Each structure stands twice: as C-alpha cells, then as structure tokens.
Known about the structure:
Layout: H1 4-24, H2 46-79, H3 94-99, H4 107-114
Helix pairs in contact: 1-2
Amino acid sequence: xxxxxxxxxxxxxxxxxxxxxxxxxxxxxxxxxxxxxxxxxxxxxxxxxxxxxxxxxxxxxxxxxxxxxxxxxxxxxxxxxxxxxxxxxxxxxxxxxxxxxxxxxxxxxxxxxxx
Length: 115
C-alpha cells in the first residue's frame, strides 16, 4: 500500500499541474472560464470560434473533474481514510493506488458499479 505521506506528495503535485493547465486555458480551478481567452468575434469566424470554445470547454470540464478527484483524495489523506474503498471499506490494492492515486473503489466494487 502506498503510504499516506507519499500519496499526499503525489496528489499535491498533480493538483498543481491541473490548476496550472486550467489557468493556461483561461479557467478557474472549478472550471469556469475567466474571459482571458479570446475566441474571436468576427462574424466570419463565428463557427470556428464556437468550435474552439466547445473544445476548450470539454478539456476544462475534464480537468476540473480530475482536480475534484484529487481534492477528494487529499481530503481522505487528511481524514486518515486514504486507500479505503468507499463501497465496502476494505483497503484498495497497492498496485491500483499507485496507478491511480485518486481511486475511490477497490477493483471488485468498481466492477460491480460498471456493470
């Protein structure tokens, strides 16, 4: 099992990367666009601007969800419950936690949820 201190360091580093990526896309950590990104306002470019804005919003939404997952995992580290399955309460396997430090469920419970 990955220890909480190591997990916390990995999660904090991941959080910083995600916040930076959101900022570069002109978004706040909660996924709202700040208006710092120019998509163009000419009538001829309206379709291109709309397509670009939609693409950016999709990326921002994805990053915001990932950031939320990291924040939830950090809260678990703080609470002393990091690595416990939210469904059955057992410890999530070390390999899974190393591969995906934001895992909320053990492999068995995740498989049940997916089906």
